[in-house]
Each structure stands twice: as C-alpha cells, then as structure tokens.
Q: What sequence folds into this?
C-alpha cells in the first residue's frame, strides 16, 4: 500500500528549526546559569579573601601596636635603670665593696672583722650656741643655708658599725689609729671592748663606729689601689 504524506515540507522544516532553536536556547540558558554560578562563586571567594585579608591586616596592625608598646616599655625600662643607677651612685658615692676593702686593708696582724653595717641617715640639725658676734651668727646662718640648698641625697650621712676581734689592746689601738688616718672615714670611735679567755687564749671583742666622709670622690686609680691592697691583705691574712 502506498503511504502518502500530506504534511508540507515547509512545515516539517519549520518544526525542525524550532526544535533546534529551542535546544540552542536551553543550552544557552544552561551555559549562562553555569557562568552565573561560577561568577557568584568567584565573587563569594573574593569576598572571603577580602575578609581574611582585612582580618590579617587588623592583626598585623595590632601586632605592630604591641611591638611599638613593647619598644616603648623597653625604652622606659632603660631610662628607669639609668635613673636607678644614677640615684644609687648619688646615694652611695663610695661602693660598699670599696669601704670593706679599705677596712680590710687597715687590719693589723691578728685582727679580724666579724660584722659590718652601713646605714644612711638624715643628719641631725645641730643646736648652735648663741653667737657672741654678728660675724659668727652670719657664718652659722650661711652654713645652715648651704646644707638646706643641698639635694636630699647629698645631705645623707653614712654611719658605719664595725665589729671584730683583736688579740690585745695594742692591735685594737693600732687599728683605730689607721682608721682615723683613712681618707674615707671620719669620727672613728670605740663603743665597746670586752676581754674573753678561751682555752688559755685571751682576745678582745670590740665594736667601733665611724662615718663616711662627705664629698668623697675617688678616682679609678684610687679604687684599683684599694682593691689590690684588699686582695693582698686577705691573701696575707
């Protein structure tokens, strides 16, 4: 049997064209959706990277601020240490090791030290007697004014208490005489001296007081000489 197609060829071609165009439109839409999704993904990642970069910059700024504060603290610490050392030098013009070396240098044979203490005190205000003349009154006022104008650390007096043992009064007297002739000490005085006998050996335990001279300035050569003499005296002892 013969099949006869009554559909015109133009209609068939138009239908195929419409299908093809529809398929192209669908593919184009799929591609555009894919491109839009990729674009949105890239934008989201860019925003995330920007947020991370902002956080990193913020942390970097905080770290820089912390480093700056640390450097400022270090600078303040160095300044405070310098001030403390300067104050220590003002309060203690002669190091205690030098005072101890000077006391050790003057030890006669057989005399030994048992205790040593250095105490800084404010000087007591002296009671001046009634001046017999205007000149003496003016001189006393000028002396008091000079003391008042000094800085507080310059007005401090260093009191020294010395305790030790000596074989006899002769060595003790020699030690006191050497301390009186010392360039560092002043007002050397014997406070107490007691005699003890142990195993037929007699010795004297003594306590002395002295003051460090004011306005004492030692050169590096003087300090080295005192230290060397102290080492030699300890070695000989």
A:
């Amino acid at each position: 049997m013969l099949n006869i197609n009554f559909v015109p060829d133009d209609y068939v071609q138009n239908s195929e064209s419409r299908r093809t165009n529809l398929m192209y439109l669908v593919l184009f839409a799929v591609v555009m959706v894919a491109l839009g999704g990729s674009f949105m993904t890239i934008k989201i990642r860019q925003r995330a990277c920007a947020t991370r970069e902002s956080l990193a910059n913020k942390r970097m700024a905080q770290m820089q601020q912390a480093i700056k504060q640390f450097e400022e603290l270090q600078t303040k610490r160095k300044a405070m240490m310098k001030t403390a050392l300067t104050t220590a030098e003002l309060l203690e013009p002669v190091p205690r090791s030098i005072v101890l070396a000077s006391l050790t240098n003057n030890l006669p044979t057989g005399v030994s030290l048992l205790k040593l203490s250095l105490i800084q005190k404010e000087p007591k205000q002296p009671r001046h007697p009634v001046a017999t003349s205007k000149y003496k009154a003016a001189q006393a006022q000028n002396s008091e004014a000079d003391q008042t104008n000094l800085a507080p650390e310059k007005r401090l007096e260093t009191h020294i208490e010395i305790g030790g043992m000596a074989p006899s009064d002769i060595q003790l007297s020699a030690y006191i005489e050497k301390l009186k002739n010392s360039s560092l000490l002043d007002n050397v005085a014997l406070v107490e001296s007691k005699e003890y006998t142990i195993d037929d050996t007699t010795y004297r335990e003594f306590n002395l007081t002295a003051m460090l001279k004011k306005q004492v300035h030692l050169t590096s050569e003087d300090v080295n000489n005192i230290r060397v003499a102290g080492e030699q005296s300890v070695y000989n002892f």
User: Anything to note?
Assistant: The two ends are 148 Å apart (CA to CA). Helices lie at 9-91, 96-105, 134-149, 152-155, 169-180, 220-236.
